[in-house]
């Protein structure tokens, strides 16, 4: 028996993967076998369900104090493609979703050079006034760390202010790659891995659930992806605060690492399956359809993913600017249901915290 086969048998028996075994499985197991293992694990956790929500993104600005090499979204202040919404403009966007049944607003943007913590608390309060029943999933750990430091507060104090204003969850962005050496090459001036973890750990301790991401398919090796997943698994063992893990494929259009190219479909599928297997303590693996495109997302459902994110309604530019297929990303409820059914599953609407929503 080959080594990967022996590891696969241990995984099936429920044994936790070590970094060494994960590397062998990742590099040597046939794709179909990884699919089988990941699907088995997914079905143990979420049966035949595929989760989605009704959401939209609010991206108030693409100005940013950081200059990440992989980012296609940021623009300098004087660029004709820069935007910087006033509070009133941002609230106009929010108001356009009144009565549409959305349950989540995902607020994320560049790290604005001037706005601070009080401004963002005010933003959250105003969103809540307009859409009182939505959950606000707001600001990456990097944005949070920056605004809280700027306010001269401890992380837990700053988070508490945002929670008091109505922040309900934290998205997974800003994680990129935790290995400090690779991170320093792709986003040298960005907030650190330690900052990212401090924000998520402190949020979990304050009762706030969050997501986690990885940006893969650039200059990192599989070992770095495994290290990233292991660091997340360790924190999850301690806090149980992560809801979902979202692998984000590096898209190469219009940024300063464009010459690298994009990784293959099979690499995407192996990454999804291995994420499902390594993160045995994270309930959901999200195939973010806006980033993969709809076809790969459908395949992803047979590689361990149990969530596709939401309807989006053409409200995010991060991926369209980075070269994603859908330049006006939106998905109807019907499309999501049909996609799940095509692979033998059932689409279930959820809220941000994965409570199931029955609209009948
Ligand atoms: O942190 C930026 C990534 C992230 C590129 O928590 C890129 O539910 C690929 O985190 N190619 C922001 N990726 C988006 C994000 C997210 C998205 C959907 C759902 C959730 C959630 C979180 O986008 C950034 C960065 O890792 N990103 N540029 C690019 N060229």
Task: Furnish the topology, listing elements before pairings.
Layout: H1 3-12, H2 19-28, H3 31-46, E1 49-53, E2 55-58, H4 87-95, E3 104-107, H5 117-130, E4 135-138, H6 141-150, H7 155-165, E5 167-170, H8 180-186, H9 193-205, E6 209-216, H10 222-239, E7 242-249, H11 265-278, E8 284-285, H12 289-292, H13 294-300, E9 307-310, H14 333-342, E10 346-349
Helix pairs in contact: 1-2, 2-10, 3-11, 4-5, 5-7, 6-7, 6-9
This protein binds ligand V47.
Ligand V47 binds next to strand 6 and strand 7.
Summarize, please.
With 360 residues, this protein is an alpha/beta fold.
Describe, in plain words, how this protein is organized in 3D.
It is built from 14 helices and 10 strands. It is α/β, with parallel strands linked by helices and 360 residues long. The protein has a single domain (3-349), classed as TIM Barrel (Alpha-Beta Barrel), CATH 3.20.20. The strands form 2 sheets. A 7-stranded parallel sheet has the order 2-3-4-5-6-7-8. The structure holds ligand V47.
Strand order of the largest sheet: 2-3-4-5-6-7-8
Helicity level, as a percent range? 40-55%
Instruction: Note the gap between the termini.
Output: 52 Å
How many domains in all? 1
Largest sheet: 7 strands, parallel
CATH class: Alpha Beta
Figure out the total of helices: 14
What shape does the CA trace take?
globular
What are the defining features of this structure?
binds ligand V47; three-stranded parallel β-sheet; single chain; 13% strand; TIM Barrel; 42% helix; alpha/beta; globular; 360 residues; 14 helices; seven-stranded parallel β-sheet
């Amino acid at each position: 028996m080959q080594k990967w086969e022996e590891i696969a048998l241990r995984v099936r028996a429920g044994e936790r993967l070590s970094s060494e075994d994960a590397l062998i499985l990742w590099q040597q197991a046939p794709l179909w076998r990884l699919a089988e293992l990941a699907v088995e694990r997914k079905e143990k956790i979420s049966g035949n369900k595929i989760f989605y929500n009704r959401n939209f993104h609010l991206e108030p600005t693409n100005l940013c104090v950081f200059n990440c090499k992989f980012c296609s979204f940021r623009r300098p202040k004087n660029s004709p493609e820069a935007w910087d919404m006033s509070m009133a403009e941002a609230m106009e966007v929010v108001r356009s979703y009144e009565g549409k049944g959305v349950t989540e607003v995902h607020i994320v943007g560049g790290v604005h050079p001037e706005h601070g913590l009080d401004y963002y608390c005010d933003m959250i309060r105003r969103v809540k006034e307009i859409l009182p029943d939505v959950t606000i999933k707001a600001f990456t750990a990097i944005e949070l760390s920056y605004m809280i430091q700027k306010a001269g507060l401890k992380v837990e104090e700053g988070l508490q202010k945002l929670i008091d204003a109505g922040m309900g969850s934290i998205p997974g962005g800003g994680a990129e790659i935790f290995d400090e050496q690779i991170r320093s090459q792709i986003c040298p001036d960005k907030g650190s891995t330690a900052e990212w973890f401090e924000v998520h750990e402190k949020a979990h301790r304050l009762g706030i659930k969050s997501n986690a991401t990885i940006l893969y398919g650039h200059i990192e090796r599989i070992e770095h992806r495994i290290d990233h997943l292991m660091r997340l698994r360790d924190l999850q063992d301690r806090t149980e605060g992560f809801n979902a893990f979202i692998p984000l494929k590096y898209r190469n259009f219009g940024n300063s690492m464009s010459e690298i190219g994009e990784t293959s479909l099979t690499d995407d599928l192996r990454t999804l399956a291995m994420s499902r297997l390594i993160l045995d303590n994270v309930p959901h693996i999200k195939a973010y359809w806006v980033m993969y495109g709809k076809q790969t997302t459908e395949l992803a459902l047979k590689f361990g993913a149990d969530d596709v994110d939401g309807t989006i309604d053409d409200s995010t530019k991060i991926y369209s600017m980075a070269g994603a297929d859908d330049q006006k990303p939106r998905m109807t409820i019907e499309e999501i249901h049909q996609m799940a059914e095509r692979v033998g599953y059932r689409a279930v609407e959820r809220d941000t915290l994965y409570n199931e929503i029955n609209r009948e």
